[in-house]
Specification:
Structural class: mainly beta
Number of helices: 1
Radius of gyration: 14 Å
Strand order of the largest sheet: 1-2
Helix content: under 10%
Length: 67
């Protein structure tokens, strides 16, 4: 098995006048959600819906913005 990457086009469906952002992402077959860097959420003007607890690779937990 190898590492798989995908090119994604991300956009804000509520702000269609904003240009989409293209990003290369590492595909994780076990992932349930997509994580994007904060600067991408700001660029797309995505609004935070809530905070959710996430578990990091080192096993620690923290709250992260869910947009």
């Amino acid at each position: 098995m190898g590492i798989a990457h995908a090119t994604l086009t991300l956009a804000n469906p509520l702000r269609r006048e904003l240009l989409p952002v293209e990003a290369v992402a590492l595909a994780d077959t076990g992932a349930v959600h997509l994580c994007i860097p904060e600067h991408v959420a700001i660029q797309l003007e995505l609004s935070e819906q809530e905070k959710r607890e996430v578990t990091l690779a080192d096993g620690s937990r923290q709250l992260a913005a869910y947009v």
